[in-house]
Amino acid sequence: MKLIISLLVLVLFVSGIKAQFYIEAGGGYGFKAFSENYLYYSNYLYYPNSFRMTTGKLSLGQGYKIKSSLGYKFTGILSAGVDIMYIVGQKEQFKSHSLQGRLVNFTPFLSASLLSYDKKLIPYIKLGPSVGKAEVICIEEYHEVEDLNWFDKYWRYYGSYSYGFNISLGISWNIWKNLSVFMESDINIISYYPLKGKLYKEEGIAWGLNLDDEENDIQSKVPWYKEIVFVNNPQTHRDSSRPQEKLRQKYPFNNWGVNTGIRFYPDFKTYASKVKKIFIKHNKTENI
Predict the structure, then answer these.
(1) 260: part of which helix (H) or strand (E)?
(2) What total of structural domains would you count in the chain?
(3) Alpha-carbon distance 53 to 38, whole Å?
(4) CB 2 within 8 A of CB 234
(5) What is the pTM of this model?
(6) Residue 155: which CATH number?
(7) Which residues pair with residue 158 across a beta bridge?
(8) How buried is residue 37: exposed, middle or buried, by Cβ count under 10 Å (0-12/13-18/19+)?
(9) DSSP β-ladder status, 92-93 and 97-113
(10) In 3D, which of 84, 86, 89 has the Cα closest to residue 32?
(11) What distance in Å separates the CA atoms of residue 130 and residue 142, rounded to the nearest whole number?
(12) Lowest CB count within 10 Å: 73, 102, 170, 237, which one?
């Protein structure tokens, strides 16, 4: 991070008055990529060490993206800024549950324009580290009609920050003096380790008891946990007044995708001149 800041200061000193702010707005779609190992129980989980764990592949990064950027163009070649990306991932279905991720990601970046034979079409590369806030929605599903057990438990996994890296390769097309459109392909490698989980919804019938009925005595049948804590070595316990312990592991948001949008360069000098003229005209009118 110190190296990036030093480079920005150096470029700003060299570029002088050629600097220019710009704003981007757009969106796109991310496809699941670089899936990583994910451990889960193939049976419905009540007692953490009761069933054999299964290994699957997981990435929560597939889904629609909304992106915006605030940038600063130092020269005709180099710029820097911050990307903001919001992802609502698609559901990932496993045997006993499903997962869906949500992420707000911030990426401070450096961007460099590449050689181009057309002044209107400008290819560029952009990269930088990323940090964000994420959450994972887990729906535990248990359907066993003969035993009057069919219910879903909705959990929200949260806490801690996501972190990772982004690299983008794109092209911009100048369609007007202060306006251009862009299209880019990007790769995001994002890791997230939630700290806690909270049960926020339950529906169905468990051991003949309707979960919508607040008077049910589900605790007399089985420990009915309301909270989760993720730890490296989970221990089994039947005290539902304490959080259930689950294995701490990565919930990645890795993806590659395509984005498109517009880039606008505010002309502050022109705006200031117009405001000045309006102000002078207003003063002349008052003096008449």
Answers:
(1) strand 255-264
(2) 1
(3) 10
(4) no
(5) 0.79
(6) 2.40.160.20
(7) 196
(8) exposed
(9) antiparallel
(10) 89
(11) 37
(12) 237
**What single letter denotes the amino acid at residue 189?**
I
**Residues 164, 109 contacting (CB under 8 angstroms):** no
Sole residue written with tokens 């979960």 = 211
pLDDT digits (tens, 9 = 90+) for 33-75: 999 999 887 655 444 444 567 889 999 999 999 999 999 988 7
- Show Cβ contacts of residue 82 under 8 Å, excluding neighbours closer than 6 positions: 69, 70, 71, 106, 107, 108, 109
Domain that holds residue 61: 2-287
Task: Return the structure tokens found at 265.
Answer: 């360069």
Encoded amino acid at 197, one letter: G
Pair of tokens at residue 34? 């670089």
Partners of residue 72 on adjacent β-strands: 21, 80
Residue type, 168: S
Cβ atoms of 87 and 101 within 8 Å: the answer is: yes
Go through the chain and tell me how many residues it has. Answer: 288
Contact 96, 141 (CB under 8 A): yes
Task: With H, G, I as helix, E, B as strand and everything else as coil, classify residue 213.
Answer: coil
